[in-house]
Design brief:
about 290 residues; Ribosomal Protein S5, domain 2; alpha+beta; Alpha-Beta Plaits; 2 domains; 7-stranded mixed sheet; 9 helices; about 35% helix; about 30% strand; 4-stranded antiparallel sheet
Amino acid sequence: MITIDAHAKLNLTLEVLGKRDDGYHDVASIMQTLDLADTLTIQPADSLNLACSLPGLSGPGNLAFRAAELLRTETGIECGADIHIEKRIPVAAGLGGGSADAAATLVGLNRLWGLELSNDRLRHIGGKLGSDVPFLVEGGTATALGRGERVRRLPTPSLPWIVVAVADANLPDKTAAMYRSLTPDNFTRGALTFKLEARILHHDGDVPPQLLFNTFDTVARTVIPDVDRCWNDMYAAGAREIHVSGSGPAIYAAVQRKEIATTVQLVMERIKGWRSLVTRAWPNPDAA
């Protein structure tokens, strides 16, 4: 039996550079995994089966199940597995939960089935499942380019505590709808992403809050009313430098001290009624 954590992610930057001929968008993003994680338990079986602690996510419709099927197709192997996912990452929130589970499935089955595939090969396979999956095969910190499939690993920066709050998108096919809401005025050249990348590489992992950026910050607040309300509540609770993760509806703020992060989280959850949590970067270079 194999047990593996599937870590959530944040976009420290997310710039959309333009729309491609294939209908996707080119992006420049610095991505960071968090200690918030789902846990996958994988063991041998005669067939492929997937169960989830959220019953609506069990079965073949789960991206992790599709990852297992794709891995069998790509390698020609006919092994089975029982996969169980204990969900902790909020669903469809912009935190990469489904992609993290798919990436962890590829990594776990690679071990269970003795395939000995390299991480590069797993990233290539993962790119067929979703734009975030290649990064999440290893996680940590990285610059993601193209659709997200071109991953350039970075040292883990020194990040403060992070408060995350999740608004209700109530928007069918949320990610596609958010990208359709972009106009050419929202496109950038990736300058902030490359500036933060250089900062992480050459300034001991320092991440100035003013370099955090997401193209969807304004768009999400316009398209998803709950994001705007959640954002205003987080600001009133004392958070600053608030940003969307992915295309939302989760928002986050970097906070220097744990006690401040905890206070903001308690106000958001107990007084304002938003699902919220306090987390840190994973791996955490400041951990003992």
